[in-house]
Design a protein that fits this description.
alpha+beta, D-amino Acid Aminotransferase, Chain A, domain 1, five-stranded mixed beta sheet, 25 helices, binds zinc ion
Length: 749
């Protein structure tokens, strides 16, 4: 770049950065994410590294950027307040560490540096001035020399002592720290705002900054603010030898010291600290945006000194940003397993918290409205750790001049998958559902994927791709090209020798509901993209290849026309799935509320699908691990015709609907319901249940009129009383053993 242009670029960047700093510090209402701000700042630093003549004293890189607003009286700090040098990667941290060690080796040859490692609190800097133990002034950082007088506001914060505890207070002492809003308090406060119909605060940092800058201290007093100290400025009448020595002393005087600080001896330990705190980043009292590493010893700190903006004895390692901005390209809808239609944001792919994000759920139409986003907007998005990414809201100023490209999202009236009119499940529900549960391709695909999942029948080949392909023959594997038809080839004048068995893609879905899943044969998959192989014809060389111009497909790869491996796998796996135990079949049925736990409970209580189908709601509700909600859902499910057909079809195909019973065990309890309560000597809870089921009985969890026997062990409790009041016979362990061995007849003697 020519020097003139570079100078202009530098001036433009500097101006932009100053603008963002003002909005961030004085108005607590930033226009861009911190990550983007940091990027601008780094660009300016890079330009200056190449052209040091541009690094003038008024460049943002040379100044602590906060500035002071008119709203507060200016205050001169006794000692300058600094910012911190940021490092954004392990390499940068290692380089910083190496430099510091090398400099110290030269400046203080006898010293062994120790590293005080702290979390970087996402709040705002404060300087507290104590005279003879009394708080006389509190000021923001400002430009580092002059801050703003916020004494009245700071006095409302409980963590900040007005008088120091203990004795031997210095004549004068500047304490530096960070004011923050604890994460829990932040969420509680936002809920309170929401309940009052007010806009929530964007994040704990802006919340703290905004709260401290209230003109009316009474307003600040309403905000839950806290503080931790992280340094000392000017002092007289006290001898402090190191950072940690200072913290000990400040703690003794009643000042709040961070519990997360450690003293470490080498880079390796520092990196461990980084990882450990990144992993529990959201479990701390407050939000953090990184870790600060400081040379502990004050004499060594003095030797290393400062630049005009940052100390050379400290570095802030910034964690990957959790908040960035990107373009909201579109809003589309997803139809879930239960027919719920949820809008989601299609985003221009962007890195957040170390992973790429290109989609984010928007939950429902009310949420889209509340977020006030338009399709085409630039939006703030957040991804905190493992939490799913979230669209926070639009970058309003970025709309300027782009109004034409923006438009409002309209929630569809019909299912995007099958066209059925959407409806609320019950009155007042925000969510809309597609009522075409049986054969809506999207719902069916989700159910099939669920059937194939690990927790259900565990079918390799019936995952995302398989599930979609069975419901949409046009669905293609990533990279799978579209088939070119004979007609298209014919019209092109190129002669392609189509293989005899090459055939068109089928136009109709393989499955209309899951009833026929286990009746499929490889033949049925001939027309489906996902199970076909591709061959390409290169007209120039008249040969087949993997990459040629014409994509011509044959239905299976093998020369003899037999299924390819992908197809074989699916069918071997489906065969295997038929042998899965009953509880897994129950999971696979997608009955509301019936996950693995309820399925196991049902399977062990009844042992067969027929008996579950026959059980009434009250009886089901009595099973341990079932309860009324699940019982109602089970009854509801069986009341649907096509569900009944589905079970019959699966059973006819050989899916096991009955758990193995040991044939050698006599069926002494056929038709009996037995409840076991309290602890038995020679049976565990599961063993007593299994013993009942193995003999054809039902092991229920609670006593009702339908209970045939209650077995009461040690500490039987209220069930025994209930049984007596209902006239249900109560057995002890010996009698239980007799019952198991001989059935009810045995008890009569
Ligand atoms: N989004 C925007 O428009 C915008 C504008 C300006 C600044 N910013 C953001 O603000 C930050 C830059 O501000 P900065 O100059 O205050 O630098 P900084 O936040 O990177 O680091 C310096 C500050 O960290 C604080 N701090 C927290 N924990 C600390 C600890 N344990 N020890 C010492 N200090 C600790 C101190 O207040 C100190 O002044 C960056 O994250 C930047 O992205 C954003
Ligand atoms: Zn539908």
């Amino acid at each position: 770049m020519p020097a003139g242009e570079l100078r202009e670029e530098h001036a433009r960047l500097a101006e932009e950065i100053r603008g963002h700093r003002t909005r961030y510090y004085q108005e607590a209402d930033p226009l861009i994410s911190d990550a983007e701000f940091d990027e601008l700042f780094r660009r300016l630093e890079r330009i200056e590294a190449e052209h040091p003549e541009l690094r003038t004293a008024d460049s943002p890189t040379q100044q602590v950027g906060e500035g002071v607003s008119e709203a507060f009286a200016p205050v001169e700090h006794l000692r300058q307040m600094y910012s911190l040098e940021d490092v954004f990667s392990r390499e940068e941290l290692r380089a910083w560490h190496e430099r510091a060690v090398a400099s110290l080796a030269e400046l203080r040859p006898d010293a062994t540096p120790r590293w005080l490692t702290e979390v970087k609190i996402d709040g705002l800097a404060i300087s507290l001035l104590y005279r003879d133990g009394r708080l006389v002034r509190a000021a923001t950082r400002g430009d580092g020399h002059t801050g703003e007088d916020v004494t009245h506001n700071v006095l409302t914060i409980d963590d900040v002592p007005r008088r120091l505890a203990g004795s031997d207070h210095p004549e004068e002492l500047e304490v530096r720290g960070e004011i923050f809003m604890p994460t829990a308090e932040f969420h509680a406060f936002n809920e309170q705002l929401a309940a009052q119909g007010k806009a929530p605060l964007a994040n704990p940092r802006n919340a703290a900054a905004g709260s401290l800058r209230q003109k009316d201290p009474a307003k600040t007093a309403e905000r839950p603010l806290s503080m931790f100290v992280h340094g000392v400025g000017a002092r007289s009448g006290v001898e402090l030898t190191s950072q940690h020595d200072a913290y000990d002393q400040l703690a003794a005087w009643g000042l709040p010291v961070s519990p997360y600080t450690r003293i470490l001896t080498c880079l390796e330990e520092i990196e461990e600290y980084l990882d450990a705190h990144l992993a529990k980043r959201h479990e701390l009292v407050h939000e953090i945006d990184g870790v600060v590493v400081k040379v502990d010893d004050f004499d060594q700190q003095r030797a290393l000194g400062h630049t005009s903006r940052v100390p050379r004895w400290a570095a802030a390692y910034k964690y990957p940003p959790e908040e960035v901005t990107t373009r909201l390209v579109d809003i589309r809808e997803q139809v879930g397993r239960t027919g719920r239609v949820t809008p989601y944001a299609v985003l221009e792919p962007v890195q957040v918290a170390g992973s790429e994000v290109s989609r984010a759920t928007l939950h429902n139409q009310d949420v889209v409205r509340a977020k006030n986003v338009l399709i085409g907007d630039d939006v703030f998005i957040r991804k905190a750790g493992d939490v799913i990414p979230e669209v926070l809201g639009p970058v309003l100023p970025a709309r300027e001049g782009r109004e034409e490209e923006l438009h409002e999202y309209v929630f569809p009236a019909a299912c995007p998958s099958c066209g059925t009119t959407l409806a609320a499940a019950k009155e007042g529900d925000v969510d809309r559902r597609c009522p075409n549960a049986e054969s809506c391709p999207a719902q069916l695909a989700e159910r099939l994927i669920h059937v194939g999942s690990r927790g259900a029948l565990d079918v390799e080949g019936l995952g995302e791709e398989g599930g979609r392909a069975l419901t949409d023959p046009d669905f293609r594997r990533p990279g799978q090209a579209e088939l070119i038809s004979r007609e298209a080839v014919a019209g092109s004048g190129v002669e392609v020798p189509f293989a005899e068995d090459s055939m068109p893609v089928s136009q109709t879905p393989v499955l209309r509901n899951e009833a026929d899943l286990f009746h499929l044969s490889p033949e049925d998959l001939k027309g489906v993209y996902v199970w076909r192989e591709e061959r390409h014809y290169d007209a120039a060389t008249r040969s087949w290849s993997k990459t040629g111009l014409w994509t011509v497909e044959r239905y299976f790869a093998k020369q003899d026309g037999s299924p390819n491996d992908r197809c074989r796998t699916l069918f071997t796996e489906l065969e295997k799935a038929k042998e899965q135990p009953l509880w897994r079949v129950l999971v696979a049925l997608s009955i509301r509320h019936v996950g693995p736990t309820a399925s196991r409970a049902l399977a062990s209580a009844y042992g067969s699908i027929e008996r579950i189908r026959a059980a009434d709601e009250e009886e089901l509700a009595g099973i341990d691990g079932v309860g009324p909600t699940i019982a109602a859902a089970v009854r509801e499910w069986f009341a649907v015709d096509w569900h009944q057909r589905l079970i019959d079809r699966w059973a006819a195909a050989g899916v096991r609907m009955v758990d193995d019973v040991d044939e050698s065990t006599p069926r002494t309890l056929e038709g009996m319901t037995v409840v076991v309560t309290g602890s038995l000597e020679s049976f565990s809870r599961d063993e007593s249940k299994e013993a009942i089921i193995a003999r054809g009985g039902r092991a229920a969890g609670s006593v009702s009129k339908k209970t045939h026997y209650l077995v009461a062990g040690e500490n039987a409790g209220s069930k025994a009383e209930k049984a007596e009041s209902l006239g249900v016979p109560v057995l002890d362990e010996d009698q239980f053993r007799t019952l198991l061995a001989e059935g009810p007849d045995g008890l009569e003697d």
